[in-house]
């Protein structure tokens, strides 16, 4: 059965987060809609008329950046656009992930489709053809300051449209662009006035990474509710603090969702029921358990805000200059990445804190003085065996790194282009570190899940609730239960994949009347 997602049609309206994930991560094909083609042609007619105007127009008949005052003769304008792309494709460092490059190409195409950039129709259709054929330009890690958009990353993509530079074909092989295009029947473009600038002047790289991060963080938030619930069971904690009326006393929307998820996950748990009577001496749980909805809820609200900003950006036509609705060609500052950079940094803070509270729950399960009857480090034979002692070290190392990654990139700025571009957003850098942070959070949650599952097994003959029990059972298909010390790294990596693939949340959902709630992706 073919599992390839359906093709995404790029029209005059904005693409969605789901479209970006489908094209970037799952290889969905791309085509331009007829309304987009009409809008592109209409705006292009305006640029063509200005090309012969004696008055200079930025991006059409002038140089760029600090060279904007240099008038370019008509016979040199093709070379102007080609030189722009070649010179700006100056990135350095490791290759950026394929999904990021495909996301930024789709988002640039979406802006071209608005008809506000003045690009030629054949330029836009060639970019769509590259995406559709699975040809991915090689983009380097470093080069974007996040103002005038993601210039260097987008220039590497634009270079491929010229039939120059390196690409990866659909099979992932490193190829010369011209060769890969020829093989699938795509002709390189000959850039005309405004083409080069329209291809490189946008916030598409940082926005693409934001959208992918929002998609991933949404799943990890549901998983954080799951691991927290499992830890509450493992620690003989109470679910009374998650009651709806208590949560309603502080009407934070994300908190209400997180608490509702935890109530559902802990419903009908024999472990929880075992200590609700008058003989229970535990007065209240530690903050890392009791306040789980407050922390995960705040992270949810941060994600909701980030999705709102992403929605505004998806509806934008980011270029400079732009062709206005009434036919003017005007310079502007909409390429500045501050709105996107801020929320990328906000998310990195939320990710770090969510990982921090997860690590604290794990540490509590391993400490015989605080674990309410569990063996030291959950070891089979403490002293001979070390159990999950060093798995928590791994968590601690990651959490420490996440705190460094939470330092905002957007508060930095460094001037460029002979002080013409004297304030920049560093949004690309914010996006790159957020991707690292989300990987770290996945690993921290995996260790908590692995540890809580082992602790729940050690509570036998008491049994977990249906939902958490389904998660433990699904994990046990690849990771065995308690016993003597084993090669633990392999089991940690299996738990990482269990979370990253969505299998952990799916297992919980299989035993719930309603699936765990995420954060709405509607804008």
Account of the protein in words:
The chain is mainly α. The chain has two domains: about 10-200, Orthogonal Bundle (Fumarase C, Chain B, domain 1); about 210-510, Fumarase/aspartase (Central domain) (Fumarase C, Chain A, domain 2), CATH 1.20.200.10. About 55% of the residues lie in helices and about 5% in strands. The strands form four sheets. A three-stranded antiparallel sheet has the order 4-6-7. A two-stranded parallel ribbon has the order 1-2. Helix 9 (about 205-235) crosses helix 11 (about 255-265), helix 15 packs antiparallel against helix 16 (about 390-405) and helix 17 (about 425-460) packs across helix 19. The longest helix is centred in the last third of the chain and has 32 residues, at about 425-460.
Question: Which features does this protein show?
Answer:
mainly alpha, 5% strand, three-stranded antiparallel β-sheet, 523 residues, 9 strands, Fumarase C, Chain A, domain 2, Fumarase C, Chain B, domain 1
Topology overview:
Elements: E1 8-10, H1 17-26, E2 30-32, H2 34-50, H3 77-88, E3 92-95, H4 98-112, H5 121-133, E4 136-137, E5 140-142, H6 151-161, E6 166-168, E7 174-176, H7 177-183, H8 195-200, H9 204-234, H10 244-248, H11 253-266, H12 270-273, H13 287-290, H14 292-314, E8 322-323, E9 329-330, H15 338-366, H16 389-405, H17 427-458, H18 466-475, H19 488-500, H20 503-509
Parallel strand pairs: 1-2
Antiparallel strand pairs: 3-5, 4-6, 6-7, 8-9
Helix pairs in contact: 1-4, 1-9, 3-6, 4-5, 4-9, 9-11, 9-14, 9-15, 9-17, 11-14, 14-15, 15-16, 15-17, 16-17, 17-19, 18-20
């Amino acid at each position: 059965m073919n599992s390839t997602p359906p093709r995404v049609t790029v029209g005059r309206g904005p693409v969605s987060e789901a479209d970006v994930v489908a094209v970037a991560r799952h290889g969905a094909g791309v085509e331009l809609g007829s309304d987009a083609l009409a809008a592109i042609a209409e705006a292009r007619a305006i640029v063509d008329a200005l090309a012969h105007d004696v008055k200079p127009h930025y991006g059409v008949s002038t140089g760029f950046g600090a060279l904007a005052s240099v008038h370019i003769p008509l016979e040199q304008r093709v070379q102007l656009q080609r030189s722009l792309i070649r010179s700006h494709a100056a990135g350095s460092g490791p290759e950026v992930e394929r999904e990021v490059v495909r996301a930024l190409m789709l988002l640039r195409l979406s802006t071209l489709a608005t008809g506000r950039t003045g690009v030629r129709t054949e330029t836009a259709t060639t970019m769509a053809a590259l995406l559709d054929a699975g040809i991915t330009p090689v983009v380097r890690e470093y080069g974007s300051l996040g103002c005038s958009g993601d210039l260097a990353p987008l220039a590497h993509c634009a270079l491929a449209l010229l039939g120059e530079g390196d690409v990866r074909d659909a099979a992932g092989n490193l190829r010369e662009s011209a060769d890969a295009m020829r093989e699938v029947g795509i002709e390189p473009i000959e850039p005309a006035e405004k083409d080069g600038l329209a291809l490189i002047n946008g916030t598409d790289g940082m926005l693409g990474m934001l959208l992918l991060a929002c998609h991933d963080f949404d799943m990890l938030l549901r998983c954080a509710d799951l691991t927290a619930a499992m830890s509450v069971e493992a620690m003989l904690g109470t679910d009374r603090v998650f009651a709806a009326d208590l949560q309603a006393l502080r009407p934070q929307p994300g908190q209400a969702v997180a608490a509702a998820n935890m109530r559902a996950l802990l419903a009908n748990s024999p472990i929880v029921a075992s200590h609700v009577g008058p003989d229970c001496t535990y007065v209240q749980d530690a903050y890392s358990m009791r306040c789980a909805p407050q922390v995960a809820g705040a992270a949810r609200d941060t994600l909701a805000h980030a999705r709102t900003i992403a929605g505004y950006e998806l509806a934008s036509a980011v270029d400079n200059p732009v062709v206005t609705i009434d036919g003017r060609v005007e310079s502007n500052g909409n390429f500045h990445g501050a709105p996107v950079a801020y929320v990328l940094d906000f998310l990195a803070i939320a990710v770090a804190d969510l990982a921090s509270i997860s690590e604290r729950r794990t540490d509590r399960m391993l400490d015989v003085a605080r674990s309410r009857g569990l063996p030291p480090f959950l070891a089979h034979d403490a002293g001979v065996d070390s159990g999950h002692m060093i798995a928590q070290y791994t968590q601690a190392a990651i959490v420490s790194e996440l705190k460094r990654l939470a330092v905002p990139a957007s508060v930095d700025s460094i001037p460029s282009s002979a002080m013409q571009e004297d304030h920049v957003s560093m949004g690309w850098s914010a996006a790159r570190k957020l991707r690292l942070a989300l990987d770290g959070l996945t690993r921290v949650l995996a260790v908590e899940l692995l540890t809580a599952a082992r602790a729940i097994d050690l509570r036998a003959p008491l049994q977990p609730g249906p939902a958490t029990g389904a998660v433990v059972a699904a994990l046990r298909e690849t990771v065995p239960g308690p016993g003597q010390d084993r090669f633990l790294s392999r089991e940690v990596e299996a738990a990482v994949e269990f979370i990253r693939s969505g299998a952990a949340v799916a297992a919980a959902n299989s035993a719930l009347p309603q699936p765990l709630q995420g954060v709405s992706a509607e804008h």
